[in-house]
Amino acid sequence: MYILVVDDHALLRGGMRFLLRSLDPGLQMDDAADCAQALERVAARSYDLLLLDLKMPGLNGLEALDALREAAPATPLVVLSGEDDPGVVRAAIERGAMGFIPKSSTPEVLVQALRLVLAHGVYLPPAVLGSARAAPATSLGASGEVLLPGLTLRQMDVLRCVIRGLPNKIIARELDVSEGTVKAHLTLVLRTLGVHNRTEAVYAAAKLGLRA
Fold first, then answer.
1. Which run of H or E residues covers position 81?
2. pLDDT < 70: residue spans in the chain
3. What is the DSSP secondary structure assignment for residue 123, as one 8-state letter?
């Protein structure tokens, strides 16, 4: 497993290297002190997970998130932040992050959150998750996967791609359908979840325990 940690504090990067060993004894970690260095790393190799601090020198905050998502759209990205303002969390999820972990979290919570994201789930701070609207009831498929009544298997595929933060163009390519078909499926997904946009859909998926 290869993980890239993007943070301008050398002490945090060193601590993360030690902490992440509990995820996988064979884990390989690269680090970057700013977004420019991170983009060089991403261009040179593929990663299983990107961890991004929102406050760094140079290209900063959500702009850095946008740049990394564009450079590696299929790689899960988790934000590490010193703040957990709901507006910032929402903005990060809107831009394709699959998790938002406040730096005030305990090491145990951080590791559990990363395990969830690596298992194709979404991690949101409890305070933010608790404020999300109620999610609809679910059922289990024959193989134990979570299903939403009223959605076809293809529409569930679209929802899982949305959880991964993929734009419609890439969803269409992965599912071998047109962008128009993706938009039609997404409209039904939002209606079934009782939400108005992709970000609210990700919040609902997190409450339901859906995984990508």
1. strand 77-81
2. 60, 129-147, 149
3. B
Q: Which helix (H) or strand (E) holds 3?
A: strand 2-6
DSSP 171-200: HHHHHTS-HHHHHHHHHHHHHHHT-SSHHH
Would you state the CATH architecture of domain 2-131? 3-Layer(aba) Sandwich (3.40)
Assign 101 to helix, strand or coil: strand
Structure tokens of 105?
Answer: 């979290």
Which two tokens mark 142?
């024959």
Domain ranges of the chain: 2-131, 139-208
Hey, what CATH class is 139-208 in? mainly alpha
Q: List strand residue ranges (DSSP E) for the chain, in order.
A: 2-6, 28-32, 49-53, 77-81, 99-102, 139-140, 146-147
**With contact defined as beta carbons under 8 Å apart, do 133 and 190 qualify?**
no
CB-facing half-sphere around the CA of 65: CA atoms within 13 A: 27
CB 171 within 8 A of CB 161: yes
Which residues pair with residue 99 across a beta bridge? 78, 123
Residue 144's pLDDT is what? 44
The pLDDT value given to residue 13:
82
What pTM was estimated for this model as a whole? 0.72
Residues 52 and 65: beta-carbon distance below 8 Å: yes
pLDDT value of position 195: 84
State the burial class of residue 139 (Cβ atoms within 10 Å of its Cβ: 0-12, 13-18, 19+). Answer: exposed
